[in-house]
Amino acid sequence: MMPAVSPAPSAPSARSAPATGSPPLCARTAALGALREADPATKASATRALYAAVLDGSLPCPADLELDEPPELPGRPARPELVEPRKLGRRNMQSPQGRAVLLHALAHIEFNAINLALDAVWRFPGMPAAFYTDWLKVAAEEAYHFSLLSARLAEYGHAYGDFPAHDGLWDMCERTRGDVLARMALVPRTLEARGLDASPPIRARLQQAGDHASAAILDVILRDEIGHVLIGNRWFRHLCDNGGLDSHVTYTRLAEQYRAPKLRGPFNFEARRDAGFDEAELAELTALAGLDGEQTAPSGTTD
Ligand SMILES: [Fe+2]
Ligand SMILES: [Fe+2]
Question: Which residue intervals make up region (Disordered) (predicted)?
Answer without folding.
Answer: 1-23, 65-94
